[in-house]
Amino acid sequence: MRRLSVFLLLCVAAANLYALTLQEKEKTPDREAVQAEHAAQKKTTPRRTPAPVKNYTPSEKIKADSAVSFPVDI
């Protein structure tokens, strides 16, 4: 019984150490650094505006007096 409890204790300790090494490898960069990089990227990339649609024809005709269903679960 004593051997089993020592074995389980060692297994738990090994799992905890392994989890700590994974956390060190998967550290995420600081939020400020990501924001600064994103801002720098925005400054260097010019933004193109899309050309407006010239002849838009709606696919459905709805009368002004008819009710339009609205999703309630929003």
Can you characterise this structure?
- The protein has 74 residues and is mainly alpha-helical.
- The chain has helices at 2-25, 31-44.
- The longest helix is centred in the N-terminal third of the chain and has 24 residues, at 2-25.
- The model has no long low-confidence stretch (mean pLDDT 76).
What layout of secondary structure does this protein have?
Layout: H1 2-25, H2 31-44
Classify the secondary structure makeup into a structural class: mainly alpha
Task: Give the beta-strand count.
Answer: 0
Large-scale geometry: elongated
Total count of helical runs of at least 4 residues: 2
Which key phrases capture this entry?
2 helices
Brief synopsis:
With 74 residues, the protein is an all-alpha fold.
